[in-house]
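Handoff note, outgoing to incoming analyst
You'll be picking up this chain. Sequence as last confirmed:
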Amino acid sequence: MVIDPAQVHRFAIGDGYAVYRGPAGDSAFHRHAAFQIAVAERGEITMIDPAGTVHHGKALLVLPMMRHRMLAAEHLRTCYIEPQSAPADRLRALAERADPAGRGGSGIVAVPELEGFRAEDIAGAGPSGELDPRLVTALNLLRDGAVTLPELPVLVGLSPQRLRTLAREQVGMPLARWRIWAQLRRATEALGAGEPLATAAITAGFADQAHFTRRMREMMGLTPAMVLAALTDQSRRAT
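Most recent structure output, in case you need it:
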């Protein structure tokens, strides 16, 4: 695969996804609230699941809320796809084909068919056609910071218990976990708008910069400093 030197370091957020391109350090175990497609632009990616099984591949798919650790990768292209988006429907189908019996597995799947994915392939794809539309609305409202958790059930026409059940059944996580993901999204958007790390953290609702850093490492395997470096690099290359 030919690497575009102008895009070696990149971070971008779109409707239902975020894309990071650049180096990644040896991460601790973490789990995303989104699907992750990770592609090695040189060699292979190596991930380890909680059982200690090592997974190698040019392209690996990690399901939401599946704990894993990724070893250092110098040339990484990764995309986080939110579960309420239409591209997530395709990823659910890929995971189902890899584990048709539904035994759960490790949540890490080799996906050679996704080696050439691009952000342009998923931009503007719209909402999921598989999830309950009321849950999709709830996730989007939380993502955009428009409402608080207690306000959600009434706004989407569900009881609090039914909404919690839908979240667990259809996206495999509590809404409180999704709210943290939403905060990370808003913080990285603030970084992209030029806010300093500490200000972006407070803007998104984190207690401070250290809290922002800890949550991003726990949920994305990245740090705000890595994202900021990618944003700075792409801005410099664009001028």
